Each structure stands twice: as structure tokens, then as C-alpha cells.
Amino acid sequence: MLVCKKCSGNKNLDLRKWLERRLEAEGHGDEVKVLKVSCMDICPKARVMAVVPPGPEGSPGGCYAVDPLHEREDFYRQVLKLLPEDHPKTH
């Protein structure tokens, strides 16, 4: 997944680093990579843009504007839905 480095730059609300740590802690670090990319120039205020490519078995991807404080758990659950069916999901 791609995460905007400009809007994810707040150290207290760094969505990219939070996602990396969470994915690794729950055993998904090898399946989902979180990449920091240049500004996508579409970021709404107080949100972080994240682009998730389509997953295996035709699962849809998407472009998400995530509030890194209040919506990160919901976003994380959406990312887990993109994992292959044969992989155990947490939460």
C-alpha cells in the first residue's frame, strides 16, 4: 500500500509507521508492505491518503482518506480483508 509521506509526517499520528508496526505484530508484515510516497496532491485536511492496490482473488483496492487518529482501526480492518482467504486474519 502507498501512504503519503507529507500528510503522514506528524510523528504522533504517523499512519504509515502505525500500520507497519501493527501488521508486523499480527504476522502480516510479509504480506502487506507499506510504502511512503511523495505527496499525492489530493489530501484533505487532517487526513492521510493511502492507496491500496487490488488484492489476490480479485479483491478491490481503493484510495482512502484516513483520519490517522479516529479511523485507523477501521482502515486496518479493511486492509485485512484484502489478504488471501487461506491466511488467518486477526481481529
Description:
The protein is α+β, with helices and mostly antiparallel strands and 91 residues long. The protein is 22% helix and 18% strand. The chain has helices at 15-25, 72-80, and strands at 2-4, 35-37, 48-52, 62-66. A 4-stranded mixed β-sheet has the order 2-1-3-4, covered by helices on one side. The two termini are 20 Å apart. This is (2Fe-2S) ferredoxin domain-containing protein. InterPro entries: Thioredoxin-like_sf. It comes from Cystobacter fuscus (strain ATCC 25194 / DSM 2262 / NBRC 100088 / M29).
Q: Strand content of the residues, in percent?
A: 15-25%
Shape: globular
Count all strands and give the number: 4
> Which strand order do you get reading across the main beta sheet?
2-1-3-4
Main β-sheet: number of strands, strand sense, barrel status?
Answer: 4 strands, mixed
- List SSEs in N-to-C order: EHEEEH
- What is the first-to-last residue Cα distance? 20 Å
> Could you say which structural class the secondary elements and strand pairing correspond to?
alpha+beta
The helix content is: 10-25%
Organism: Cystobacter fuscus (strain ATCC 25194 / DSM 2262 / NBRC 100088 / M29)
Protein name: (2Fe-2S) ferredoxin domain-containing protein
InterPro entries: Thioredoxin-like_sf (IPR036249)
